[in-house]
Structure formats: structure tokens, C-alpha cells
Write a structure and sequence with these properties.
alpha/beta, UDP-N-acetylmuramoyl-L-alanine:D-glutamate ligase, 11 helices
Length: 315
């Protein structure tokens, strides 16, 4: 039997967020990386989570190891690169909103290959989670992702896939081709509505779900932000309504959804019940600043579910 329930693969990045728009010298340090956020979310919700990546032999890499261990994320799949650094990004603020500056070219995570990624950990989990960002950071990382998906299937694990489309990392034509191929490996696909409209055009959400199924994914969860999500297993389709909360910062909410959805499938929920739980968890993740600090535990999600339940509307 696998010793882990949920393993995510991808690129962690240390964040520096400008404290004030008029202060270019003071930065608040945080943590980012979509799949890292998902792994931490799953761990905080009570499942045995792990992470697979490469980090630099630097202070930033050590900070991440401390973060994962603090939240109970297994780090057996984290390997240190003696040459390449841990990725970093800066968030500055100006009259046109947030501006992101990435220092990720040649990062340790982008140096992942099928030969140096921890496939033994991938083979020791019930769910492998990865994303389009995991594939977009380099060609070798993309190859590593496909090797991981094959290893997961060979070991009897299920594959969770979030498109998480970032067109600054790769052109749409390549992104669409890689995501389409990945959909055939995925046991469930977790696109956002914005991502899906880049991939399929500005069409009705139901047609987007149909298109995802046509790409070969048996279970599709189309994330629609505060409106909730649409869940389809190919036979049944439901709109799972979202939760209204006092939103402060939506950073990482979709990543929280991914981790929570996987956690509840591990617990035995059907996809529609799991999506309702994940909607609640993602809503709570928007009530604080940053991607990690506001990630909820199970008790907080259960309280929201009990007091502010969201209806399941059959479609």
C-alpha cells in the first residue's frame, strides 16, 4: 500500500511582495508555487502529502524544506541541486495593479529531468498532482512530468492535473498540445474558466467541459472562481455553487481547491461532494494574505460547510 495519499510535483518559488507602492525598499517574504501550495493545502486538511521537486543549495531552498516540514509535507522527493538556484519572484504595486517579476530561468526545478526526478516517491502515492506550470518551465521538466504520470499509472495511482496556463512561459500552440496530451493521462482535470477559454475559445462552460472530456479526461472540474465550479464525470453533471466570504487576497485559492479536492477523494467522497468541500476550502483561502498563511484546516472548512452550506444544483 502507498505510504502517501497526495504527492505534488512542480516548482516552488520564494516570493517578495512590495510592502507599499511608495516603498521600493521594504519587501515581505512569502512562498509561492502552485503545486507546493496544493501539497500544503492537502496536508493541512489531514492527508499524507508529499512534494517532488529540485531546490537550490541555498537559503531559499532551506526555507522551503522548513516550510514543508512545518506543515507535515513529506520531503523525500525534494532533491538539492548543487549548481542551479531556487526560483524567486517579486510582486510590485503601481497605478496599473500588481506586476510580477520572475527570476526563474535556470532554476533548480526547471532542471528536473526524467532521470533526476524522484519517481520512487511518485510511485508511493495514491494521487499525483501536477500542472501546466510544472511542464512550462522547461522542456526537461515537461519530460519529467510525463515520466511521473506514467510512473503513477504503473503504480496504480491516479493523476490530478490543473492546466494553470501561463502564456508568459510558453506559446499557446505548444501549451495546448502539451495540455491535450496530459489530459489523456489525467484521471481528473482542473482547468479554470479563464484558462479554458484560452484553450477552447470564448464558449459556453458546458461546451468547455465537453471539450475536456473529448481530450480524454474522464472527470472534469471547471473552476469558475467565486461562482463555484462545474463537475462532470461523463454521466452526471452538476454546478456546485461557491461560498461568499470576506475576500482579502485570492492568491492560491485555485491551488487550495486542487489540494482539497484530492484530499476528499482520498477520504472517499464522490466528486460532487469533494468539489463542495474544495469550494469551501478555496473560499477560506481568500480571507488572508498570501498563498500559504490562510490555507484552512479541516475544522475551519467543516464550520463553513455547516453554517454557510452551498447548494448542489443538478444540471
Amino acid at each position: 500500500m502507498p505510504t502517501l495519499d497526495f504527492v505534488a510535483l512542480g516548482e516552488p518559488m520564494v516570493e517578495f511582495n512590495q510592502a507599499r507602492a511608495d516603498d521600493a525598499r521594504t519587501w515581505l517574504q512569502g512562498f509561492g508555487g502552485d503545486t507546493s501550495n496544493a501539497a500544503i493545502a492537502a496536508a493541512r486538511l489531514g492527508v499524507r502529502a508529499g512534494y517532488v521537486t529540485r531546490i537550490g543549495a541555498d537559503a531559499f531552498g532551506r526555507w522551503f524544506v522548513d516550510l514543508w516540514q512545518q506543515h507535515g509535507v513529506d520531503t523525500r522527493g525534494v532533491r538539492e541541486d548543487a549548481v542551479a538556484p531556487t526560483g524567486v519572484y517579486f510582486v510590485s504595486h503601481g497605478p496599473h495593479g500588481h506586476e510580477f517579476s520572475y527570476l526563474r530561468a535556470g532554476s533548480a526545478a526547471s532542471c528536473m529531468t526524467p532521470a533526476n526526478v524522484s519517481l520512487d516517491v511518485v510511485s508511493d502515492t495514491r494521487i499525483l498532482h501536477l500542472s501546466g506550470i510544472s511542464q512550462a518551465i522547461s522542456s526537461s521538466a515537461c519530460d519529467a512530468c510525463f515520466a511521473a504520470m506514467e510512473a503513477a499509472h504503473d503504480a496504480g495511482a491516479r493523476v490530478s492535473y490543473d492546466t494553470n496556463l501561463r502564456l508568459k512561459l510558453w506559446p499557446l500552440t505548444r501549451a495546448r498540445a502539451v495540455i491535450r496530451e496530459s489530459a489523456q493521462y489525467a484521471d481528473w482535470m482542473l482547468p479554470s474558466l479563464d484558462d479554458a477559454r484560452h484553450l477552447f475559445g470564448d464558449i459556453d462552460p458546458d461546451l468547455i467541459v465537453d471539450a475536456c472530456h473529448a481530450w480524454g479526461t474522464p472527470l472534469v472540474v471547471l473552476k469558475c472562481g467565486p461562482a463555484g465550479c462545474i463537475v462532470s464525470d461523463g454521466r452526471q453533471r452538476e454546478r456546485v455553487e461557491g461560498f461568499r466570504v470576506a475576500t482579502v487576497d485570492a492568491t492560491g485559492a485555485g491551488d487550495c481547491f486542487d489540494g482539497a479536492f484530492g484530499a476528499r477523494l482520498v477520504a472517499g467522497d464522490d466528486p460532487f461532494t469533494a468539489a463542495r468541500y474544495a469550494n469551501a476550502a478555496a473560499a477560506l483561502a481568500t480571507t488572508g494574505f498570501g498563498a500559504v498563511a490562510p490555507l484552512p484546516d479541516d475544522a475551519a472548512v467543516q464550520r463553513l460547510l455547516a453554517t454557510r452550506g452551498a447548494a448542489l444544483t443538478a444540471r
